[in-house]
């Protein structure tokens, strides 16, 4: 599955790659072109309301056979983070988005060891119930972050702690970080992935943020061999093309091949 729901982080990546300021329209244009070119090779695509959803829907950019996933989270930056807080955006019209073709909703959950776990649990339960009431697939994306107060902490330990806390609350799919961001031995990643499998009550997939694009396919293979069901990723597919003179051509020449390779990795790993 493909992700194009990045917001201010995408703006920063594009600005760095191009050496110029990035307007909202630039973000939307990239998302539309990425959807047009890449969704023929994806089983689903994740899109945000803020910069992508309406344009992608209006232009019919999602290929037949590729399911649409709508991001249901609202991000607030702060303290040097593009996403200081993330919350379930109850102001969006999800019934309308379902009419427009959404098959699933996704919620980002920031896991910080010094924040109230009950707030996270209650929010996930509310999100899952909303999805059930609309007959939409629910996808949660717990991401381990540093403490709110800035004190030292082990964010890697938070990946598994988040799964133990939130992995049994009824979400249809759990979107997890690759253990150690892929920067560990294969056996260490495999062991940590098996711990995630044991902690999550249902299918889970990996995201690619923080993982080197060249390492990501192998990390996907390891995770799937240890119980994951695939990936829902963006950066590992398209981040390297953001500064290209012709992004459209680079998406065709580079990103399509990367997405196809990842799909083959999943097919081979889960059928082994």
Automatic annotation (TrEMBL):
One of its GO terms (biological process) is 6-sulfoquinovose(1-) catabolic process. Transmembrane segments: none annotated. InterPro entries: Aldolase_TIM, DeoC/FbaB/LacD_aldolase, LacD_aldolase. Keywords: Lyase. GO terms for molecular function: 6-deoxy-6-sulfofructose-1-phosphate aldolase activity. This is Aldolase. Belongs to the aldolase LacD family. The keyword Transcription does not apply.
């Amino acid at each position: 599955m493909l992700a194009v729901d990045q917001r201010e982080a995408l703006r920063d990546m594009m600005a760095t790659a191009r050496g110029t300021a990035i307007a909202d329209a630039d973000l939307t244009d990239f998302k539309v072109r990425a959807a047009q070119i890449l969704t023929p090779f994806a089983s689903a695509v994740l899109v945000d309301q803020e910069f992508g959803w309406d344009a992608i829907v209006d232009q019919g950019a999602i290929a037949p056979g590729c399911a649409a996933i709508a991001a249901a989270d609202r991000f607030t930056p702060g303290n040097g983070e593009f996403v200081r807080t993330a919350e379930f955006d109850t102001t969006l019209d999800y019934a309308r988005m379902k009419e427009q073709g959404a098959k699933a909703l996704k919620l980002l959950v920031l896991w910080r060891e010094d924040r109230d776990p009950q707030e996270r649990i209650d929010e996930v339960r509310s999100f899952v119930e909303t999805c059930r009431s609309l007959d939409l697939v629910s996808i949660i994306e717990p991401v381990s972050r540093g403490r709110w107060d800035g004190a030292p902490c082990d964010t890697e330990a938070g990946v598994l702690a988040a799964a133990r806390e939130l992995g049994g609350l009824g979400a249809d799919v759990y979107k997890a970080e690759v253990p150690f961001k892929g920067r560990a031995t294969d056996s260490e990643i495999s062991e940590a992935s098996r711990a995630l499998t044991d902690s999550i009550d249902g299918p889970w997939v990996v995201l690619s943020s923080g993982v080197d694009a060249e390492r990501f396919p192998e990390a996907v293979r390891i995770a799937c061999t240890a119980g994951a069901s695939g990936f829902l990723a963006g950066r590992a597919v398209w981040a390297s093309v953001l500064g290209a003179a012709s992004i459209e051509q680079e998406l065709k020449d580079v990103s399509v091949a990367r997405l196809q390779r990842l799909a083959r990795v999943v097919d081979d790993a889960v059928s082994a």
